[in-house]
Structures are given as structure tokens and as C-alpha cells.
From TrEMBL:
Name of the protein in its database record: Cytochrome c
InterPro entries cross-referenced by the UniProt entry: Cyt_c-like_dom, Cyt_c-like_dom_sf
Molecular function via GO: electron transfer activity; heme binding; metal ion binding
Alphabetical keyword list: Heme, Iron, Metal-binding
Amino acid sequence: MPALLCLLPGLALAQAPAPTPTPQRQQQLLRMLQQDCGSCHGMRLTGGLGPPIHAQAMRELPRDSIAAVIYHGRPGTPMPPWKSMLSAAEAEWLAGVLRGEEVKP
Ligand code: HEC
């Protein structure tokens, strides 16, 4: 029942702080941030087709909202949803990385 399992991280997120991804998964997510997100938001996340998403800009937004944009995308704009690529907990972790709250390994 893979579909059911996919729902679990989202449910856990509503109650408890998101679990930190394993170091190996963190590397994958950081690579995705550079390669996939960087293609629209710029190599240094200072903006391109998408707006700047560096720490200075992201600290203006609540971590939950950033995670929601990453997970669901922003309908009607080129910002795609990433929920097929990562879990809600991982989106939450990435949001923390963007805000400079998570130490990059
Ligand atoms: C195809 C281009 C594209 C890709 C790839 C992309 N984005 Fe975006 N993103 C956008 C655009 C365009 C917006 C602005 C949407 C709007 O007009 O509100 C945006 C908005 C955002 C925002 C909200 C910024 C704000 O100031 O409100 C965040 C956070 C974000 N993206 C993170 C990411 C992350 C993390 C990734 C990689 C997992 C990613 N994006 C990949 C195009 C992209």
C-alpha cells in the first residue's frame, strides 16, 4: 500500500516536529536544491525565473509556509510541486535549510 505510506509523514508532521532526514538523504536533498531549485532560483538561490530564496529572503517567511510551497508548489505559477520527490517532513527540513536554521553537512 505505497499510497497509504505516503500519507504518514504528512500526518506525523501535524503533531510532532519533523524528523531530520538521514545524512545520506540530506546530501540528496541538498543536491536537488542546487541542481533542480537552482535552475529557476539561480545557482546561489539569489533569483532567476523564480524569486531569491536565500536565507535573508526566507527568514521573512514562516518555515511552514516555505515547506508548503516546496511540497505543493504554487498553482498558477511556474513553481512546481515537489511532493513526488520528497516527503512533507523533508520539505520541512529543506525549508529550515533555506532559512539557515539547519547546518549544512
Ligand atoms: C520551474 C521553475 C522552478 C523550479 C524548478 C523551482 N521553483 Fe520555486 N518558484 C518558482 C517561481 C516562478 C516562484 C514564484 C511563484 C510566485 O509567483 O508566487 C517560486 C517560488 C518559490 C518559493 C516562495 C518564495 C517566496 O518568496 O514566496 C519558494 C520557497 C521556492 N520557490 C522554493 C523552491 C525550491 C526549494 C525548489 C526546489 C525543490 C524550487 N523552488 C524549484 C519557480 C521554480
